[in-house]
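Field guide to reading this record: the first block holds the primary sequence, the second block holds the structure written as discrete tokens, and the final block holds curator observations. Each block starts with its own label. This record concerns Beta-lactamase-inhibitor-like, PepSY-like, catalogued under organism Psychroserpens luteus.

BLOCK 1 — SEQUENCE
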Amino acid sequence: MKKIILGLILIGLAMQSYGQDVLFQAKIKKEKVPVVIIEAIDTDFGDFEMVEFYAIPIEFIDEEVYINRNIDSDEDYDTYQVILKGKNSKIVSTYNKEGKLLSSVEHLKNTEPTLEVRNAMAKAFPGWIITKDHYKMNYYSGKQKKERYKLIITKGKEKKVVFMDGKGEILKVHQKLNLELKKN
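BLOCK 2 — STRUCTURE
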């Protein structure tokens, strides 16, 4: 039995290391990013600081994604990813080499949920108080934006984690356990 479990663990680790080889990104300096992308970021996310830059070896052809493993130089990259930071927020944005925004994922901490979300929370969980919140928005070129909220709510000593969409619909609820470790 021990040999079977050990074998399964080794197979899982081997598959994971193979899976990580499929797509990679190369960290690059700001100077290597095309000027048109830097200008687009300034227009799209002017209040955010650009902190990291990556070149990604994928190509979008007719809305299909292809991995290009034969990249010889920095000029051959078609896709760039930029990490932006602001106050209590982080954005991961992906651009093509012409400066078109392909996607963005925005993470905000301690931001007030919309009135619609707060009203839905109050209706679904009367007497509960929002103690922490996180906001995540996904945007993909030509597609509808998806808004998600992660709310930690309390009522007395009880805690729950509630996931809601931007319209206030509950997606998932977790009971949060308060575990106290005893010191010896």
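BLOCK 3 — OBSERVATIONS
The helical segments are 2-19, 35-44, 115-124.
Confidence is low (pLDDT under 50) at residues 14-22.
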